[in-house]
Amino acid sequence: MTATAPAEVRAPGEDRVLVRPAVLLAGAVVVGILAMAALLWAGDGRPVPAIDGLPDAGLGTGWALPAARVLTDLAAVLTVGLLVLGAVLVPARDGELKGARLRFTRAARWSAVAWAGAALVQAVLTLSSVLAEPVGDVLEPALVWSFLVDIDVGRALLVQAILAALVAACAWWIRTTTGAALVALLAVAALVPPTLTAHSGGSEDHTVAVTSLMVHVIAMALWTGGVVALVLLGSADRKSFPVAVPRFSRLALWSAVAVAVSGVVSAAVRLETPSDLVSTSYGRIVVLKAVLITVLAGFGVWHRRRSLPRLSVDSGRRVFARVAAVEVLVMAATVGVAVALSRTPPPVPDDVGLESVGVARLLLGFDLPPPPTAAELLWGQARLDGFWLTVCVLLAALYVVGLRVLHRSGDRWPVGRTISWFGGVVLLVAATSSGLATYAHVTFSAHMVQHMLLSMIVPIFLVLGAPITLALRTLPRGSGQVGPREWLTAVVHSRYVAVISHPVVASVIFVAGFYVLYFSALFPWLMQSHWGHILMGVHFLLAGALFFWVMVGVDPGPRRPPYIARVGLMLIVMPLHSFFSIALMMTEAVLAESYYSLLGRPYATDLLADQHYGASLGWATGEIPIVIVMIALFVQWVRADDREARRTDRRQARAERTGAGADELADYNAYLGSLAERDRGR
Ligand code: HEM
Questions:
Q1: Distance, CA of 433 to CA of 445 (rounded, Å)
Q2: Which CATH class is domain 26-197+212-342?
Q3: Segment 370-396, tens digit of pLDDT
């Protein structure tokens, strides 16, 4: 391996090696595995031989499995770091990948290959551990294959390996910044599958546990991967280094906060009482992680105070790279500690068997709620949904940041938009975390009300909040460099958005979604898992947001039809939704019957009656969005006319004042005169 930049060529501006990449990466692997081994050895997660006579995978698997997990996590972190650096952190004057950005993106293919390989090795070792048989005895292709496609944890690792291999393939040939950004997103998505199986569906707080771990691992990869990539950039490209580091500093702050908050939430659902932090092996490792993140935050503060101001001088760069290299080793050790944590039995067991909980609990992830009353539907059975809560916090936080930037620049923002946006966010919290959201898993009628809120009501308020306009007015202008603002503009004006935001296409996506979902095998399949529920909710929200963005959105983007056409389209689309409700009321077949029967709820026992009741609620509440949108459309129409009238008056006044430009009124009167003249001549 050459002395400096990732294995490729030494480019102009490359400097004397600040930190040898091979040494840094090897050091991280060793420190990570040693930290994992030390914690497992000292705690309850230590692999021990099984009692004689019982099947045993052996100590080989016992130690190799967590080691493979450390390798998988570290290869994932490096891949994400290299891609984010190539796509986001190193400034680009145009959309083409060049210089350090191209080299880092290309280097990511190797770490992605390592990632895919380590994930597959982890899968085979997990099979050995699950079957309690030495790894040599489970290497039957049919057995491995059925584990990879039929068993959740095997499937998650297979999907991760496939996505990582895809990242490697793409990193081989992409040539544009947008391409690199999309591959970086793919790499982030590849982090997710194992987090979905890290906590069994039947145990309490399932979505909070899974979502917090998902946020945790993604934020950790962005933070740790970014630091590793910057240390490597230090030698590879001294020109962009002083720009890339401050850019990363902002990302690092948000990521560190997200790692800490999601880590605490993850720990909280796995610990019974605060005393578990000292009395249990799991708790003590959590405390160690809290100490390590404090140390890492210390590094961040030090960099901001001491090394960032000196990045433009060589000595400053050297100090940054050396200190950051130590930081990388501490982060690698923390990843090792994290793997030891995930291999240590938590005080609140992650997985619960059928024998200890009823079918309903296994299907729902919580106990069957009591018969619904107004109080139960509002707050009695409220349950925080980790995924949606994260979405709502992000929507609110990003809008507040935008408002603050606008306020600081002395710009004004219509308060109506702010009220509408936060109204939409509050409604989204209500639709996804109130008692209604709990009953939406239990009765079809509650599900239909949630569906109406997510697809018809919440999106209207969010699009009237004009988030894209706020983003374009507050995101930093790239001063000739490609950055978040340029990407947003590119997305909004992309061919893809032009096609899906065509009024007819947006209407079809909006309406057809209901028919396809409920009158196919999709609905019963999605009802069976919490993630199926979340996917339905995401579809309702996005399809609704797209449709209402076209109808009443104030953001730049699609070529909107004239107001009269939009009123017409509303009057076509909404009855189509009513037909859907009527069709549902006419059905004699119970949708997702096996799911609702398995729940065995002691109320709304007539499944078909509850379904028809849900359909009638859908029909009745379908009127609400029509009213809201018609009001918004008329207000916008009147305002647009006013603006047009004022513009005409200004042009008229300017024409009269200067005698230059079209004197529209005079022209119009002349035209009327010519018509009158013609009529008189007849
Ligand atoms: C306040 C600090 C932190 C807390 C409370 C915390 C807590 C947790 C918890 C509870 C888990 C789930 C473990 C399980 O499956 O049972 C976890 C996973 C993880 N944490 Fe943290 N964490 C913290 C900081 C960090 C930091 C700073 C890093 C890395 C730089 C990190 C890396 C990870 C990784 C990689 C995993 C997934 C491990 C695996 O399953 O492969 N965490 N963390």
A1: 17
A2: mainly alpha
A3: 999 999 999 899 988 888 988 999 899
Whether 213 is in the pocket of ligand 1, judged by its Cβ within 6 Å, is yes
Contacts of 633 (CB under 8 A, 6+ apart): 551, 552, 563, 566, 567, 570
The listed range with the strongest mean pLDDT (155-164, 469-478, 548-557) is: 155-164
106-117: pLDDT as tens digits: 999 999 999 999
Q: Which of 70, 259, 296 to mutate to test the pocket of ligand 1 (most atoms within 8 A of CB)?
A: 259
Contact between 47 and 349 under an 8 Å Cβ cutoff? The reply is: no
Angle between helices 503-518 and 530-552 (to 10 degrees): 150
Query: Hey, is 96 helix, strand or coil?
Result: strand
CB 295 within 8 A of CB 330: yes
Residue nearest to atom 23 of ligand 1 (CA): 263
User: What percentage of the chain carries pLDDT values higher than 90?
Assistant: 49
Q: Determine the distance separating the centroid of ligand 1 and the alpha carbon of 41, expressed in angstroms.
A: 18
Coil, strand, or helix at residue 411? coil
DSSP 5-49: SSSS-PPTT--S-SS-HHHHHHHHHHHHHHHHHHHHHHSTT---P
Q: Determine the length of the chain.
A: 682
Q: To test the ligand 1 pocket, which listed residue (65, 220, 280) has its Cβ within 8 A of the most ligand atoms? A: 220
Distance CA 217, CA 196 (A): 12
**How many angstroms separate the CA atoms of 618 and 516, rounded?**
16
